[in-house]
Amino acid sequence: RVMQSDGHFRYLLIVDCDVHQGNGTSSIARGDASLFSFSMHCEKNFPFQKTEGDCDIPLPVGTTDALYLGKLETELKKVFDLFSPDFIFYLAGADPYTKDRLGLLDLSKAGLATRDRIVLNLCHEKGVPLAFAMAGGYAPEISDIVDIHFQTVKIAVENLTSRQSSI
Predict the structure, then answer these.
(1) What pLDDT, in 10s, does the model give residues 113-122?
(2) Residue 98 and residue 105: Cα distance in Å, rounded?
């Protein structure tokens, strides 16, 4: 809201790829045409009573890389066709990971890396700046959570570096 009021952007897209539905962001965005909430989440996970967002993609328990990534790319492209953001806030959850104790989805580390590339590449193609935050992560091995979050940062840096070299 501060960035909006300061004139840094007018329309914000929230891309929530945490395993839990983005009920907080969907509540904030409800009735505000300058905000658009997109959430890909496990349908059988917290919160148990979902808050309707602008674009909710509930996924069945056990969803694997292929289904997740196909839906993400297809649905996010549709969102870009419907809503023209000038800024994107991306929640990069580590909890869709297959070994996560609370996630209930079955994504590999490679699948999560592809997820990040899809989001970052679409932002790059559309020329929309992005901020991202780490979200979730309840794998028994802390190193798995760290690997996933580090991978997101590494992919973002690679994406930024490739954009700068193409200028």
Answers:
(1) 999 999 999 9
(2) 6
